[in-house]
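Hi everyone, sorry if this is the wrong subforum. Our group has a chain we'd like a structural model of before ordering constructs, and none of us has done structure prediction before. Sequence below.
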Amino acid sequence: MSEREFAQEFVRKLVLAWDPDFTKATPEEAAKMKEAEESGFIPEDEIDWENLGKYAQ
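Answer:
Right subforum, don't worry. Here is the predicted structure as tokens:
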């Protein structure tokens, strides 16, 4: 394990020990995430950059 990986894991464990709910979204955050997921957004890695016309509506 590299020093960077060790540090990241150590920080993750510290945060979880300090606040085990830190990864949970608030109701407001959950609503915003749901809205974003249903907005028709296309993740960058799924975009066919050579044929952008197919995304035009």
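For your construct planning: Residues 12 and 57 are 43 Å apart (CA to CA). Residues 3-18 form the longest helix (16 residues).
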